[in-house]
Design a protein that fits this description.
Leucine-rich Repeat Variant; 65% helix; elongated; mainly alpha; single chain; 26 helices; 4 domains
Length: 415
Amino acid sequence: MDIAKKAPPPGLNPRDALDILEIRAHEVQNYLAQHPDVDPAVLDYLAQHGAPAVRQAVAANGATPASANRILADDPEEDVRAELAIKIARLMPGLAKRETAHIVALTIETLECLAQDSALKVRTILAEEIKRLDCIPHAVALRLARDVETAVAIPVLEYSPLLSDTDLMEIIACGEVQETLTAIARRKPLSEKISDVLVRSLDVPAVSALLVNPDARIRKKTMDKLIEQAEAIDAWHLPLALRADLSARAIRRIAGFVGAAIIGMMAGRGDLDEATKLHLNRRLRKRLEETPKVEGPNSESAAKAVAAAKAAGQLDDMFVEEAVFAGHRETVIHALAAMAKVPDEIVRKILSSGHAKPLVALAWRAKVNMRIAFKIQTMIMKLQAGQLLAARGGVDYPLTTEEMRWHLNYFGIRA
C-alpha cells in the first residue's frame, strides 16, 4: 500500500487537509484490519478503537488474537458480533491441537458469550455454523438447542451430534413445540426411545418426518400403534407406506385403509412375498372398483381450461395433480399434451395403451414429477399392481433416458 503517492496537492486549506488525513486514516485501518500478517497488537488496538467497519473486518480476520476476539464478543455492533460468530465456529475444529490452553480457554469463552448474545441474528448464525460440530462444549450446543427462538434451536436439534437422548427427552418434555418435535424427528440416527416419545405426542408433522426418516428406528410395538392411529390421519398414509422396514402383516394392514395410488405403490416393492403381492392386487382391484366414476369435462372444455391455465402461468405439476385426483381424464390428456408439446391424440393413445413405460416417458418429457406419473397410472389409466411402474428411490424416473426416448419414438414423438 503506497500512501506516499497519495500526498495532498499544494494549496489545500487546513480543513480539507484534515479531511484527507481522516479518510486516509480509515483506509489504513481497513487495510490493517483485513491483513493476515499484521502484528496482533495492532489488531488488538483496532478491535477496541476502530470504526464499526474496521472492527467487523478485525472480527473476520483469522489472525486476530484470542484476546481481541473476546473483546469483540461484547461489541455494541450486531454485525461485528455476527461476523465473529462465523469465524469462531470455523476456528473450533482442531483448535486444541493448534493452540495453547490459554487461547483455547479464551476462544471457548468467546463462543459461550456469542451463544448468549441478545441478538437473534448472532445466535442464528452461530447455531447454523456449529450445528454439526462435535468439538464445542456440550453446554453450548445444549443452550442453543433450548433457545426460545426456533430459528436458533432447530439446526442444532436436527444435526448436533452432542445432544444425547436424555437431552432430547428433556427438550421434548419442556416444550413440545411443533417445529422442535419435527426437527428432532429428522435426526440421523434417531433411537427407538425418542421415536416412542414422538409417536406418543401425536404431532402430525413430527410423526410424518419420523416416518420418512430412514435412520429413525421404530419398535414393532410402536409401529403397530402408529398404524392403528394412521387410519384416521391421511397425512401419515404415504410416509407410512414408504417405510422400508414394514413387515408383511403391517403392509396388509396399511392396504386396508389407504387409497389405490398408495396400494399400487406398495405393490411395486421388491421385497414382497407372493401371498402379500396377491393380497395387494386384490385390494387394489377392490379399491379401484369402489372409486366413483367422475364425469369430467369433455375434450373441448378441458382444452380451454388447460389453455387458460397456461396463459396464467399455472400449468404445472399442481394443475395436473388436481386433475388426476378429480378423475378428469380429458384435462390430464390436454395438460400433458401442452406440457410435452405433443398432439393430444398421441397422449390419448399412450393412456389407453395399458403400459406404464410410455406414460413415464411422456411425464419425463412434460417435466411432470414421477410421483404424479404414478398417480396417473393408478387413478387415470387404472393399471393393476403388476403393471405399475414405481419411482426409483421414491422420487426418480425408473427408466434410463435412452429407454424413455425409445418409448416416445415408438409413439412418433421425436426425443
